[in-house]
Amino acid sequence: MTKPYSVPLSEIRREHVVVNSRFISTLAPAFSIDEARAFMARIKHEFADASHNVPVYIIGGGNTVTEYFSDDGEPSGTSGKPALAVMRGSGLGDAVLVITRYFGGTLLGTGGLVKAYTESAQLVVNAVGRGQRIPVHIGMIALPYNLLERLRLVVTRQRGEVLAEDFAGDVTMTVRLPVDSFEAFQNDLRELSAGKVQAEIIETKEMIVPVS
């Protein structure tokens, strides 16, 4: 598994004005280059009348990343590059950002543009909720009714979530738990049921959990 890294939890937008130029920053999660490109195209379509739509993305995280930026007609090095520098410094991966500019009639100069695009990127990077991709097991458990309430508590204690409960002769519970909690969960199950109940892993995947 890749070393854990932060990803945006949701799409976020911030706006500010610099010497009459209007800057609109939109940041979103993107888990592939295709997702990032689709987002960039959507923002460019939404703001088709803007002077510039400057795109940046970082797909992946840690030491395994694919990066992209464009100045979209701004002077070379004044927009996409400083925005990418902010993204790199934020620790975010699997993220795409488009900074839209409506020219306000006053030239900002090279230094002014770098400052404006840096601040625009910082506005969304600092405000976005963050999550982390972690490996999880989906497990299924058949258990007697008298253990149901105690098992629900065990799932919560091991940072898990009950996905479904089917009631028949026994209860069949479907749970999702972090991979690093699953062994402890199985031990709790054995202790709770005197060794009679164990979870069967039916799927392993990744999910995003919020981080503070």
Distinctive features:
five-stranded antiparallel beta sheet; 33% helix; 5 helices; 212 residues; single chain; alpha+beta
Task: Summarize the topology.
Blueprint: E1 6-8, E2 12-18, E3 21-29, H1 33-46, E4 52-61, E5 64-69, H2 80-90, E6 95-102, H3 109-127, E7 130-143, H4 148-157, E8 161-167, E9 171-178, H5 179-193, E10 200-210
Antiparallel strand pairs: 1-7, 2-3, 3-6, 4-5, 4-6, 7-9, 7-10, 8-9
Structure notes:
With about 210 residues, this protein is of the alpha+beta class. About 35% of the residues lie in helices and about 40% in strands. The chain has helices at about 35-45, 80-90, 110-125, 150-155, 180-195, and strands spanning about 5-10, 10-20, 20-30, 50-60, 65-70, 95-100, 130-145, 160-165, 170-180, 200-210. Strands 1, 7, 8, 9 and 10 form a five-stranded antiparallel beta sheet that branches. It has a five-stranded antiparallel beta sheet with strand order 2-3-6-4-5, sandwiched between helices. A hairpin with a 3-residue loop joins strand 8 and strand 9.
Number of strand elements: 10
Question: What is the alpha-carbon Rg in Å?
Answer: 23 Å
Helical fraction equals 25-40%
Q: Mind describing the biggest β-sheet?
A: 5 strands, antiparallel
Structural class: alpha+beta
